[in-house]
Amino acid sequence: MDRHQLLPDVTASEPRFVDYPLAPEGAPNVVMVVLDDVGFAQLGCFGATFETPNIDRLAARGLRYNRFHVTSVCSSTRAALHTGRNHHAVGMGVTEEAALGFPGYTGRIPPSAAMLARVLRDGGYNTMSVGKWHMTPKTDYSAAGPYRHWPLAMGFERFYGFLGAETSQWAPELVRDNSHVDPPRTPEEGYHLTEDLVDESIRMIQDQQQAEARKPFFLHLATGAAHAPHQVPDEWVEPYVGQFDDGWEAWRERVFARQVELGVVPAGTVLTERPSWVPDWASLSETERRLFARYMEVFAGFMAHTDHHLGRLFTHLEERGIADDTLVMVLSDNGASAEGGVSGTLNEAAGWLGQQEDVAESAARIDDIGGHDAYNHYPFGWAWAGNTPLRLWKRHAWLGGVRTPLVLDWGARVATPGAVRPQFCHAVDIFSTVLDAAGIEVPQSVDGVTQQPVDGTSLLASIDDASATDPRTLQYFEMMGSRALYHDGWKAVTDFVPNQFGERDVIPGSHDFRTDRWSLFRLVDDFSEAVDVAEQHPDVVRRLEELWWAEAGRNQVLPLFAFPESMAHMHPGAFPPPERVLLTPGGGPVHESQLPASIGGFEVRADVIVPQAGVEGVITALGDRHGGWAWYVVDGRPVATFALLDGAVRVEAPDPLEPGSHELAVRYHPGREPRASLAVDGTEVASAPLPGLFFFPNLSTAAIGMLVGRDRGFAVGDDYRPPFPFTGELLGVEMRSGAPSARPDDDVTLRSAMASD
Fold first, then answer.
1. Best exposed site among 134, 302, 491, 739 by fewest CB in 10 Å?
2. What is the DSSP letter of 100?
3. Using CA atoms, how far apart are residues 648 and 169, in angstroms rounded to an integer?
4. Which fold has domain 29-469?
5. pTM score, whole prediction
6. Hey, what CATH class is 477-569 in?
7. What is the per-residue pLDDT across 545-593, written as a single tens digit (0 to 9) for each?
8. Angle made by CA atoms 432, 437, 442, in degrees to the nearest 5
9. Angle at 451 between CA 446 and CA 453, to 5 degrees
């Protein structure tokens, strides 16, 4: 009988069942932990003096790769990890916030590069993503999407985390699957993001294993740590008080000695000298030393806290009896970050705009560092030390930006536990390694789309054989104009200094691609990129430079990114900012991309009914005390508070609102003397100047959108506590741009976008 033939009699018909994809026999579970902004020397098993015992224990069971490389910023490395292709080749030449109109910089991973989760899902895995995503264009974050670059559309079956570059550890902007959600607890109730993310990871594994333990899973856990803001409960900081008082040079020397002892740095490695743009600790004032040491004490506690919670995840794998059947990788997306500037900052957004805080003012708030009232980031010097023994840091193609820790464990599969592997490898190799371990082939076509070539090569041979050949002998690097190329043990790198965070003011080097000088290093013998041999080998320099241009052409690197010139080609999103929106209470946040432009002035009106007993509560709120503004009623009086980079401005009406119907308004008046004003029933009742930079919405990485009728997280001002719901009738809110055709200042917009990595 034709098996496809269906007859009236069921007993004479032969069924044909729909096939489910089944993973190959023995395919391991996979846990990929991606840390953020953690430098080469910022794990205990890579030399750090602060405590990371759980990651260290993983390294003792498994392997450490001391020549693992990334792209030097968040989105780009994540794209390489998840696609196995070089970052420009999949449109992620910089961060997704700074998406441009060129193939290598679209900020949108194309369907021709199906993500690891999609390939594993189609191969029989359950796929789960928890934590930082940062691969969706910021213009697509809203409830209108489009959702095609959100995690669930890219191959993950479950998602819980945040879409952007960073978020508050105390009051994050969270998404579950395709919906924005509130955190499960408030900051006052002791909420912390890292703990929540690990709780959710354990819960997802538990649910999956209890439902079907025979099916392997892929968990991608990307912590917010240790990206700024460096925020952690005080008890985690206390053990490190005083440990950094002798400064970054001394700490760096201690770390280097540990690295050599641990074997994570080869004997004979040169500890690179302190560069001129990192202050000599001895030259600092007593106030500076105490302040700068405190920034690092908090960072150390932040790392120890992160490790503690990751340890709960590793323990859960052991208690379920699946640790030996799970391939676990812990890595960082780029080197340590210098985005806090020379002196560090209590509000990271100031650094995005090249603003340096007054040290005396910061020192007066030293107890705020790491807590609810700060959005802090440490100074240049600790970033330099965090990448010991390497040069420079995140955003640069020097080793300090692109060489990071990689710890890999696969139970009994690791024949030499605790060993160090010296193979030159890259983020693109993780994709191929996981698929090789799972026994799943890279598909030729996905959803009818032919897949582009994979750049990565599996690392599995090196797990079994310490002398296995390097998975790659050629790798280009480019980030915001900083360029390098590795080939057969040689590395050439330019002296170009990206135009970010005031670095051009202090770091010597080229500011023009046409004047770049290429340095040359023999990495086979020079682990730390310490000895420039370009003068001795000009022929090698020329050959590597020519190879770089060839790789640039092959991978869509051109045109080279330049600030601010490239920003003229930024993607505007599917829709320009609206001139007017109508909002009602009861929904989720209205994303900033869907709000009228505010830099050119705006007006927000609300129709309210005040009950006889009076009224209080939030009308609208966007952001928090670290940047944003809120409009609310306290003691019956309308109030607007604006959190600026240099303080807060509060505007309050003089009289309480009478019972009955009212039209309320708040306005921002730009110009030479910018000010904010309040109006009641068409009459201006209060006004105040805004002397600093108004923190308008698209500068706020923490603020996903505007809330109506309530607030959450931290309040912008000190005179209410979220949620502070509006107790009258809020009939509707209308927001209009004061200059509908105006766009935010180009320079400020791109600084914000480029900061968000």
1. 739
2. B
3. 22
4. Alkaline Phosphatase, subunit A (3.40.720)
5. 0.95
6. alpha beta
7. 999 999 999 999 999 998 878 878 888 878 888 899 999 998 889 988 8
8. 40
9. 150
